[in-house]
Design brief:
The chain is of the alpha/beta class and 214 residues long. It has 8 helices and 6 strands. The two termini are 22 Å apart.
Length: 214
C-alpha cells in the first residue's frame, strides 16, 4: 500500500553524507522536495553528536511534522563514563537536547543505556537512571556491557561483575517502570523488540530490515 512513512535504519544514521558533502537534513529535505512534501520519517540509531551537529535543522524538521520518531542512544548520562567511552558529547549537551524535545512537546523518542562499562560506579548508573526519569522517553533499552577481545574496553581496569551489572539493569527497569517508562532489558532478543516498537510507533510494516540470507 502507498504510504508517506519512511524509516531510516543504520548503525549510525547521522553519518549519512559525510563522504559526499551531504547530510541527513539535506537528504530529508530532498525527499520532501522530490518524493512527497508530506513525508513522515523515523530515524534509528541517531547518535547524539550528530543531532547536536544539525540541531536547529533537526528541530525544525520535528516541529514541521516531518520527523515523527527518533532513536538516540546516549549509552550513559555520566560524564565520567562518556569520557571513558570516547563519546563526543557530554551530559550538558544531551540534557539540552532532550529538554528541547520536551519544550516543543515531541514525545516520540527513545534511547539506549549501557550498564557495566569498566569503571562505572553506582553513582554513574544512578545518573543515567535519573536522566531518563527526568526526560521520559517513549521507551528505553537497558543492556549490559559485554566484554569481547575485539573491544578495547574489555582490557580496561575496574571491570564490573556480571552479577552487579544485572543488579543495576534490574534497578533501572524497576525505577523506569515506576515512572511509566517502557524498558526492554532482554539480553538476546532486544533487536526484535526495538523493531516491533518502531513498527507500532510509525504504523509501518517492516519486513526487510534483517541483513543476510532471506
Amino acid at each position: 500500500s502507498n504510504t508517506n512513512k519512511v524509516m531510516f535504519l543504520a548503525d549510525s544514521s547521522g553519518e549519512y553524507g559525510i563522504d559526499t558533502g551531504s547530510s541527513l537534513p539535506q537528504l530529508i529535505n530532498k525527499l520532501k522536495e522530490k518524493v512527497r512534501s508530506d513525508i513522515q520519517i523515523g530515524i534509528s540509531q541517531l547518535n547524539p553528536e550528530h543531532f547536536i551537529k544539525y540541531n536547529n535543522q533537526m528541530l525544525d524538521l520535528i516541529k514541521s511534522g516531518t520527523i515523527i520518531y527518533i532513536n538516540i542512544p546516549i549509552q550513559s548520562a555520566s560524564n565520567n563514563i562518556l569520557s571513558s567511552m570516547h563519546r563526543k558529547y557530554n551530559y550538558e549537551q544531551i540534557d539540552k537536547l532532550f529538554s528541547d524535545f520536551n519544550k516543543i512537546k515531541f514525545r516520540n523518542f527513545s534511547t539506549h543505556l549501557l550498564f557495566g562499562f569498566p569503571g562505572e560506579k553506582e553513582s554513574d548508573a544512578k545518573k543515567s537512571i535519573n536522566f531518563i526519569i527526568k526526560h521520559s522517553p517513549r521507551h528505553v533499552v537497558a543492556s549490559a556491557f559485554m566484554p569481547h577481545p575485539a573491544i578495547e574496553a574489555s582490557g580496561y581496569k575496574n571491570q564490573i561483575s556480571k552479577d552487579e551489572v544485572e543488579r543495576r539493569i534490574k534497578r533501572c527497569e524497576e525505577e523506569l517502570i515506576k515512572h511509566g517508562i517502557k524498558v526492554a532489558t532482554d539480553w538476546g532478543s532486544v533487536t526484535n523488540k526495538i523493531m516491533n516498537r518502531i513498527k507500532f510507533s510509525l504504523g509501518l510494516e517492516l519486513k526487510d530490515y534483517r541483513v543476510g540470507p532471506k
